[in-house]
Amino acid sequence: MTGIAILPAGRDDAFEQYKQLIRDRHPIEDIGSYLNDEDLELFRTTSDDDLVHVWGTSVDGVWRNIERNDIALVYHDGAFVARGQVLQLRHDPDLAEYLWRKNVEHGRWNEEIPWEYMAFLTDIEEVNVDIEEFTELVGYDKTYRQQGFTRVADKRLNQLSGEESVKTVIADLTDAGEHIHPVGDEDDGPTPDLADQLQAASTDGNAHEEFEKLVAKVFSGLCCAADWIKREAYPSPSQPEAGGRPGLR
C-alpha cells in the first residue's frame, strides 16, 4: 500500500536545505556522473526543466522501509510545509557528500552521520498543515511532535483510509495532490443501461467526471483494476485540454 514518509526540516539549517534541494531543486546534469543510465532517464522524463528534488538521511533503518510512490511530507516548525511523492531511493555516500558538503549553502556535513540514504521526489507542492491535524488523522498522541525521519506504520494507514486511498486522504488533508477513488464491484456496480449512460455522458461537454466514472465502471466490469482520479479543474468545452493528467488509470 502507499505509505507516508515524514522528512524533518526542523532546524534552521535543515529548513534552508529543504528550500535549496526540495523546493528549488538541483540540476540533474550536475550529478549525472553519480547516476546510472536508468536513474538519469527516470529523472529526466519526470522533470520539465532537468531539475530534481532530493532529500537525505543517516537513518538507514527507516529509509529501507520507504517505497517508491510513497507520499512524502516535509515537516518544519509545527506544520507540514510541502508534500510530494517518492520517485527513487538511492544509497550513495559519494553523491551525498557532493550535494551536502559542496553544494548546500547552509549545510552541516558530518562524516560520522552522513545523509547518504537519499530519496528523490516528484510532484512537490507547498502546503500548510498543522501537525495536530495530522496527529489526529493517523492516531498519534496530541503531544506528538516530529523529531526525525520516519515512515507512518501501515496499521495506522489501514485504519484511516477505509474505502478511500491513502493518497486521497492526504490530498484532502493538504488540499494538494490527486484524489484517487478505487472503482470496484462495490462502487454501485454496472447497470443495464450503462451503455446508454456512457453514450450520453460522452457527448455532454459538462459531464467530464460522470464520463470518467462510467469508463472506470466498464473496465472494472471487465475484471480490470480501475482508479478514478479526481481533477482539480476540467477544461471547458470551448477550450480543449492541452496535455494534463488523465482522469482514469
Blueprint (SSEs and pairs):
Layout lengths: L3 E5 L3 H12 L2 E2 L9 H9 L5 E7 L2 H4 L7 E6 L2 E13 L1 H10 L14 E14 H8 L11 E2 L2 H8 L4 H9 L4 E5 L10 H9 L5 H14 L4 E5 L19
Parallel strand pairs: 1-4
Antiparallel strand pairs: 1-7, 2-3, 3-6, 4-5, 5-6, 8-9
Please tally the helical runs, counting DSSP H or I stretches of 4 or more residues.
9
**In this structure, how is the largest beta sheet organized?**
7 strands, mixed
Named CATH architecture of the largest domain: Roll
Strand content: 15-25%
Organism: Halorubrum miltondacostae
Protein name: Restriction endonuclease
Please give a structural write-up:
This protein has 249 residues and is of the alpha+beta class. It has two domains: 4-177, ph1033 like fold, CATH 3.10.590; 180-230, no CATH class. 33% of the residues lie in helices and 24% in strands. The protein is built from nine helices and nine strands. The strands form two sheets. Strands 2-3-6-5-4-1-7 form a seven-stranded mixed sheet, sandwiched between helices. Strand 4 and strand 5 (79-91) form a beta hairpin. Helix 8 packs antiparallel against helix 9. Residues 240-246 have low confidence and may be disordered.
Summary of the model, kept short:
33% of the residues lie in helices and 24% in strands. The chain has 249 residues and is of the alpha+beta class.
List key phrases describing it.
249 residues, alpha+beta, ph1033 like fold, 2 domains, 7-stranded mixed β-sheet, two-stranded antiparallel ribbon, 33% helix, globular, Restriction endonuclease
